Amino acid sequence: AGAASMALIDAIHWLSANRPLVAAILLLILASLLLRPQKPHAQASANGASASGARGVRKPSKKESVSVCTVGTVLEWGDDGQVLLLSDGIRALLALSAHANVYLITTLRRDSDDEEATVLAALRAAGVFDEGRCDERKALFCATEDGRGAMGRQLNLGAHIEASATVARYLAPHVPLVVLVRSERAEQPDCGAALVVSSFSKYVFGMRGVEMGGSSSSSQG
Description:
There is one protein chain. By secondary structure, the protein is of the alpha/beta class. The chain has two domains: 2-56, no CATH class; 64-207, Rossmann fold. Helix content is 45%, strand content 16%. It is built from eight helices and eight strands, in the order H-H-H-E-E-E-H-E-H-E-H-E-H-E-E-H. The chain has helices at residues 2-18, 20-35, 41-56, 87-97, 113-125, 145-155, 165-171, 200-207; strands spanning 64-69, 75-77, 83-85, 100-107, 139-142, 159-162, 177-181, 195-197. The strands form two sheets. Strands 5-4-1-6-7-8 form a six-stranded parallel β-sheet, sandwiched between helices. Strands 2-3 form a two-stranded antiparallel sheet. The longest helix is centred in the N-terminal third of the chain and has 17 residues, at 2-18. The protein is rod-shaped, with a radius of gyration of 35 Å. The N and C termini lie far apart (93 Å).
């Protein structure tokens, strides 16, 4: 290595004396080789591993969004203004909320903050707003069926579950799937709904095929 270095130095001296331009070019080439920064192999490898890991992770599928008319499906109003929860309806709602993004639309007997608070308290006590269930911020209120229909249309979701043939008829042209919950004893309505069922729970557990889950709750609030 020492002899080679001496030979290189002698060659550079000779070129400097006889071929200064060639010597200058060689010196520039040597300088560029010595000063060239090394490639960040470690960083590139880390980035490659990160990208590979990202490709291997499957993003969770987006939940379907559904609006539910609560009166007649999961609750009823008592004569004294109390909220009566329907146990089968609550069980179905808890199961549905594990698979869908649920908006709750409650029609109040009158436009009242107290009635809103009563409904929210009853649903909260039933576990409807527990983690992984319905989002309390998506609990909506109105004072008339017309208001409920307007909300259902404005939300523009994939499906709406309804207890009124009038609202179902209004929403049918605007919502991809309108499900009308109707008692088996009631006359079959000509409401334009794509699906008429005898109960909310029959739709969730039977036609949607959602597995039984969530706690059953029946209380007054």
